[in-house]
Specification:
The chain is of the alpha+beta class. It contains 7 helices and 5 strands.
């Protein structure tokens, strides 16, 4: 079985696309980055509310990997109940054009309605707007 792309940090073939994708590799990392870019600093439970499909365990795992990669910082406040804030680092903030491009592409090519997602080709979308 091959290693996940995110674990292949020692031997990249020099491709900048693969390198960038290695930091976004994971079902929820792009979504987490999107919400932190949109809303700034968020607490763990605020992220969970914004991403209702993610489990607590998976969110924790993805946040740890993003922190390990240096894309976000985790601040723990010594209060009861515990409070943990997540904020993008400067290198994490530099991914804004990448995340924005993904958002625009998704809005251009997909329609989400009634809990289903439909792909629309550009000519279909133009025809539906004209109708």
């Amino acid at each position: 079985m091959s290693k996940p792309r995110a674990k292949l940090t020692d031997n990249f073939p020099g491709c900048p696309v693969e390198t960038t994708l290695s930091f976004l590799d994971g079902k929820w990392k792009g979504v987490i980055l999107y919400h932190l870019l949109e809303d700034g600093t968020l607490r763990f439970n605020e992220l969970r509310r914004r991403i209702p499909s993610v489990t607590q365990r998976m969110l924790t795992k993805q946040l740890r990997e993003l922190e390990e990669a240096g894309l976000l910082t985790r601040t723990i406040f010594p209060v009861v109940p515990p409070r943990v804030d997540y904020t993008l680092t400067p290198i994490g903030l530099s991914l804004e054009p990448v995340i924005t491009a993904l958002r625009i592409w998704g809005k251009t090519h997909f329609v989400c309605e009634n809990g289903k997602r439909y792909m629309m080709m550009p000519e279909e979308k133009a025809a539906s707007k004209a109708a």
